[in-house]
Design brief:
alpha+beta, two-stranded antiparallel ribbon, 20% strand
């Protein structure tokens, strides 16, 4: 079982239910628990590996590095890297979920025609690199500002109709404290309309992520 989990607008991970070993990274497999206790990905160590097997899933892929490894060539400190966790294409994830990729849209809007070198890009290349970065940041800020404005007029009408239906059902069966149960049912219905943050996925023969 492979599951894609959204941690932020730019950070997605893929997990599976295989055995978690020392040196692996894992995340709690219950979304509500993660949100309530602000659980983040953790490194499996000798002291916690045995205790986290039941309620945590092994992270296999990530759009951002989670691991820290020592710098090479005698440099001090650690740097983010992909070692056990495989890199996951953010544009590939966005394509699979949304049918579009913000990165690709930015590249199409501000294409970079390579005229300089890797070490000395041309003024045009640098300019469009910054434009692409601004495009992506602007898009993500807009998404963040709109995160609490997710319901359409149709959604609101459906919530209203669902609440009326709940009230009629509880009236019919003479439910005691019916307002409490109506509130619970309507909240669950509203939650079902919120944007998804988890999907079952697989990788095709080309290594592209596909929603199931």
């Amino acid at each position: 079982m492979n599951k894609l989990i959204k941690l932020s607008e730019t950070h997605y991970i893929v997990v599976d239910d295989s055995e978690i070993k020392e040196g692996d990274y894992a995340i709690h497999n219950n979304k509500e628990y993660r949100n309530k206790y602000n659980e983040k990905p953790i490194l499996c160590t000798k002291s916690n590996c045995e205790s986290i097997q039941e309620h945590w899933d092994k992270i296999t892929h990530s759009t951002q590095p989670l691991e820290l490894i020592d710098w090479e060539n005698g440099a001090k400190g650690k740097r983010p890297a992909f070692d056990k966790i495989k890199p996951l294409s953010l544009s590939g994830v966005e394509d699979a979920i949304n049918g579009y990729s913000v990165e690709k849209m930015a590249e199409e809007e501000y294409p970079i025609n390579r005229t300089g070198s890797m070490w000395m890009p041309s003024r045009h290349e640098v300019s469009n690199m910054y434009r692409q970065e601004g495009y992506i940041k602007g898009f993500n800020v807009r998404e963040q500002l709109a995160k609490d404005k997710v319901f359409t007029v149709e959604d609101v009408e459906n919530i209203w109709k669902y609440a009326l239906g709940c009230a009629e059902t509880h009236d019919k069966y003479g439910t005691k404290n019916k307002s409490k149960f109506i509130e619970r049912d309507v909240k669950e219905f509203i939650q079902s309309l919120l944007p998804k943050t988890e999907w079952e996925v697989e990788f095709n023969e080309q290594g592209k992520i596909v929603l199931l």
